[in-house]
Amino acid sequence: MSTHLMDWPLALLDHSEHNRSSSGAMDEMMSQLSEIWKFRFFWLSLVKMDLKLRYRGTVLGIGWSLLQPILMTVVFCVIFSSWHGRAEWRYDAPYFLAGLTIFGFIRDSVTWGCQNFFKNEPYIRQCPLPLAIYPLRTILGLIIHFGISLSVTIASVLLLTPGSGLDRIVALAASLPALGLLFIFGWSISVLAGFAQVYFQDVQHLSDVVFQIFFFLTPILFKTDLLIEKGVGWLGTYNPVVWFLELIRTPLLTGEFAATHYYGYASAVTAVTLTGALLTMKHLEKRIIFHL
Fold first, then answer.
1. Are residues 29 and 149 in the same domain?
2. How many other β-carbons are positioned within 10 Å of the β-carbon of residue 177?
3. Which of 142, 146, 247, 283 has minimal Cβ neighbours within 10 Å of its Cβ?
4. pLDDT at 5
5. Do 6 and 90 share a domain, yes or no?
6. How many CB atoms lie within 10 A of CB 213?
7. What are 90-122's pLDDT values in tens digits?
8. Does residue 5 sit in the same domain as residue 71?
9. 139 and 115 in a common domain
10. pLDDT for 172-203, tens place per residue?
11. What does the alpha-carbon distance between residue 195 and residue 26 come to, in Å, rounded to a whole number?
12. Are residues 78 and 30 in the same domain?
């Protein structure tokens, strides 16, 4: 009995140490967020500069970011609508466009993210700012294009498909947490891609090839049920892109809420990638300058 009594202070001490370490990690994260917010005028100006440089001297300007998915959607409607068992382009056009928008954001988060640190090397060498700023620069630019494409998708749903537009808007509003998860997931994989490219400069070329293959394994041109019919349903079950497609595209097209387990899947993969991004940044932030 006396032994157990003497163990209590040690147990309490261990518990106190655990609480202090957890509190310390939380304080460190809040400090990082505060530091990033303090330099918001810097990274916002970088995002504005990227948009101006990308479309400088063009006639359509930012409209070029919409031209590819719209033209691809037209091609898909002409060629692949029969895959759905009917030639109904009014339904298929929003389906294809929503899939291209979400898949494109995730793909670009990786492929553009590969240049996060090389592109910002002058700033990294001259200014001791948090490295998280530079992936944020990439993701905010992508979010702007994503928002425009999503707005076009919503407009196409309201104009082309029958049914109550109000129901779809309400369902999509309830899916706002999914958009938040998508943003965090995009930033996290952008961070990981940036560090991977620094240490292994074939990553960007590899990711271009992988996403070209991945596109045809993701239910963008076809329904997820087709994968099950072909005996490869696991391609949809374990595909993170599918989870975000279901959370965002399903409410928009049907006016019904996505299955709750997709929120669990998306939250889990976002938490894992975010943790990986934060740990990678913590351990490599001070060393990366020697590899640029």
1. no
2. 12
3. 283
4. 41
5. no
6. 9
7. 778 888 888 999 999 999 999 999 999 998 888
8. no
9. yes
10. 777 788 999 999 999 999 999 999 999 998 99
11. 23
12. no
Domain around 14: 1-38
Residue 86: the pLDDT is: 53
How many other C-beta atoms can be found within 10 angstroms of the C-beta atom of residue 200?
10
Let me know whether 151 and 23 are in one domain: no
Number of domains within the chain: 2
Is the whole model's pTM more than 0.85, yes or no?
no
* Matching residue, tokens 């466009």: 97
In this structure, the answer to whether residues 34 and 45 fall within a common structural domain is no
Contact 116, 191 (CB under 8 A): yes
Residues 9, 58, single domain; the answer is: no
Rg (CA), the chain: 22
